[in-house]
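G., the chain you wanted modeled:
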Amino acid sequence: MHVTPPGPRIAVVGGGIGGLAAAAFLRRAGLTATVYEQASALTEVGAGLVLAPNAVRLLRRLGVMDHLAPHAVPLDWAWEFRRWDDGDVLSVERLTGVCEELYGERTYTVHRADLLDALKSVVPKEWIRLGARCTGVDTDGAVDGARLHFADGTQVDADVVVGADGVHSVVRGLVADAEPAQYSGLCAFRAIVPAEAAPEFALRRAQTLWLGPGRHFVHYPIGGGRAVNIFAAAPAGDYTRESWSATTTTAEFAAEFAGWDPRVTELIATGGVPGRWALLDRTPLPRWSHGSVTLLGDAAHPMFPFFAQGAAQSLEDAAVLARALAADPDGPARALARYEAVRIARTARLQEVSRSRRDANHLPDGPGQRARDASLAAADPLVGSGWIYGYDADEIPLP
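Predicted structure as tokens:
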């Protein structure tokens, strides 16, 4: 005999970090969900990310930190800012001991695929539908909910639809008016360097940011110290392709940083095939929800990666969404409105501060650059960012 699971029928579109986080937190809250992923396997593009305390405390409560720990690197230093041409240290923040005292958790770096695997470990396999490409969502044909349409012609009705389908979200079209992304003038590069090929300097448990005219360059260890992740931003020229699967050549990547400290160019030379994508700018959405349909993660609030909060905000979204739906399972539209009310101002603020780093990181040498360097030396970013790292998505009151 088939038993209908308790609670609303929840469809999550997208099986990336945000989508699996949504499923994991919904399960923790006693609800069930189905995740629809267009790919034939759950994979993540080869890139690293930073997990600050606001993300780590949620992952620990999900019970996945033991799964993630062998693949994570606890940082001893973060925000180690260096000058582009000679590596002169502009500012450095010690994390060990201090981060735990302030926020109850350390800061880690991980490979995106390792975080995805950790989240997958707490999501029942039968909740995941692979090869399911959602082509549209409407609220006309479904009773008390929404109807999802898929590329193979199938349709699914749900009481709640969560669009966790990234910057090119299909679900977003039902929620907000389409606005074209703005050309930022920047593109991003990424690469992974095996530890055995990386210079010793890059293997330190530090997040290092080199700042220079029109560009910046970031590196930190990932994979339990078995590799080094590189991220860099540089002028885009006429390059406008926004795809994490796009690649370039090591020579083109290196040419963007010609004349920089030899340690930077050496690290570029040891990496694999670099990825390259345009950084397009999007203004914060005025709303995330339409009736029983809502957005989560990059679909709701895509942001420049300059504050390293993209994944963390997806986790926070997922935790608040699950709490809201569990508190009002018979009123999905009300629950989604409460979720949005809690999350939209915070993520909009993070979008704005991430955008502001675009200019501050890339100042040409001169008076503005010297003033910025002086402010970096005087600042305490660990304390100054308390509004980010001290936030507990499990404790924020629902309106």
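The chain has two domains: 1-38+131-178+283-356, 49-111+180-281+362-392.

Shout if anything looks off.
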